[in-house]
Amino acid sequence: MQDQGLGSWPARRARMTPHKAAYVQDGVDTTYAQLDERATRFAHALRERGIGRGDRVAFLGLNSVELVVTMFATAKLGAVFLPLNTRLAPAETAWILGDSEPALLVWDTGFDDVVGAPDVRELGLAELPITSDAGRGLDGVLAGDATPLDEPIGHDELFMIQYTSGTSGRPKGVQLSHGNIVWNVVNLLVDVDLRNDEIALVTAPLFHTAALNQVLFPTLLKGGTALIESRFDPDRALDLVEEHRVTLLFGVTSMYLALSQSPRWATADLTSLRSALSGGAPLPESLLRTWVDRGLMIIQGYGLTESSPGATMLRAEDGLRKLGSAGTSCFFSDVRVVTPALDPARPGEPGEVLVQGPNVTSGYWRNPQATEEAILDGGWLRTGDLAVADDEGYLSIVGRLKDMYISGGENVYPVEVEAAIYTHPAVAECAVIGVPDEKWGEVGRAVVVIRPGHSLSADELLAHLDGRLARYKHPRSVVVTDQLPHNASGKLVKARVRELHGSLPRQESES
Predict the structure, then answer these.
(1) Alpha-carbon distance 56 to 74, whole Å?
(2) Is residue 217 helix, strand or coil?
(3) Does residue 282 have a cis peptide bond before it, meaning omega lies within 30 degrees of 0?
(4) Alpha-carbon span 220 to 109, nearest angstrom
(5) CB 475, CB 469: distance < 8 Å
(6) pLDDT in tens, 186-226
(7) Could you say which of 126, 179, 279, 484 would form a disulfide bridge with 155 (CB–CB 3.0 to 4.6 Å)?
């Protein structure tokens, strides 16, 4: 094949195991042969709409076979897949669409409130509404040509743009090439012994890098089957593990906690599970041991969208010995911890994490300044995360240089939340910090100074954020204070804010 990219993967797998189920959704199988045929037909339909190499095709919808078919059809043409976060407010979605300028927006009709919002309508995008229906939602555009496609596509060509929140308050489009994803999959398969009889449960959103690149693609490459769920439901997930003899799980802290707290947990048959992967934030020791008691060591790793995402892995055999660690570098990745001068940090000394490897992005879409700031000479990525390495080289993430916190596996940047809070007329000044939460890992806390002559309750402030921010970015508590700490130059001192307000019990912090 001339096509060395990801768009060729369905065809390559179909010639090996054509009748095996690639995906199952709502009890309906899609075989590898059917996946390739549908992706090919849709690629022809896209081409008839004028879409070609380099054009962006956006997809707005929950996890579905339609998402997967759209992604592979786009890749077959050398076009660029743009998965949209379904949890964003319409204004946030509109900004991303305006920045990326897709040639087509494919959207599930369940999101007509987003697509119909004025900010999105004003863009005048070409649209293709579909209804997710267990692999049949694209049937209306799959009646045409099924002639195999084999475009000359190389690993260096752009495959996908995934937007991640920016500390300036605007999202950044991470450019991921075909090669970035391929090498990430190789890294994963070196560390996790996936097999061709794998049954992977995909409940985390596929618009995120982890579920897509750490679960879906590796399972396809090995010829396994992915059970695609539109949403995560812990009781249903445990039922599916039993019914389909699931072998592979992925989740963030809140998902593994919800599974362990389900009424089904004590009696659920988990004996089929061979691997469980986690990312986003370290698992609490109590939760990890809850799963170990059921016979499964959760494999934890560290990464970010910019590294496709795998950078380090804490292998199962080290899970208890190095509890709380993010592990060591993946096989084809290199990780360093450096001082502010970019010199190597000593063992135990906090420093910024740098990542290099063929899985690391070339930069940000239409954002040369952010690219220059993030990518150093030699292709080293500045992650903005702080870590310490022990004398064996195992990393422990200790903080974020830019105060980002992770809530339920989602990155939340305080400056973006603060910008939305400042739009309330009663707010004179505010600071948002992340505070520990048993369920979500971390949640936001807004510390607010009220303008003289105004009043503002926590409920009023949080209601003000509806429609302005995705719900997962909303602070879970609000502190009203007379003043915020500043240094001599007038700059807000976030560390002091955390000292003063970060340890308050939740009931004391809410106004």
Answers:
(1) 8
(2) helix
(3) no
(4) 28
(5) no
(6) 999 999 999 999 999 999 999 999 999 999 999 999 999 99
(7) 179
Question: Tokens at residue 276, please?
Answer: 């469980």
Q: Is the pTM value of this prediction over 0.70?
A: yes
The answer to whether 152 touches 127, Cβ cutoff 8 Å, is: no
Query: Which residues, at least 6 apart from 70, have a Cβ–Cβ distance to it below 8 Å?
Result: 42, 57, 59, 81, 106, 138
Contact 84, 125 (CB under 8 A): no
For 258, phi and psi rounded to 5 degrees? Answer: -60, -40
Distance of CA 176 to the CA centre of its chain: 13
Q: What is the CA radius of gyration of the chain?
A: 23
CATH code that applies to domain 405-509: 3.30.300.30
Q: Give CA separation, 363 vs 202, 305, 342, 447, in Å.
A: 28, 11, 20, 34
Q: Tokens representing 288?
A: 């990890």
Q: Based on the number of CB atoms within 10 Å of its own CB, is 466 exposed (0-12), middle (13-18) or buried (19 or more)?
A: exposed
In contact, 371 and 347? CB cutoff 8 Å: no
Map tokens 């990518």 to a residue: 375
Give the model confidence (pLDDT) of 440-479 as tens digits: 999 999 999 998 899 999 999 999 999 999 999 999 999 9
Domain 1-143 class in CATH = alpha beta
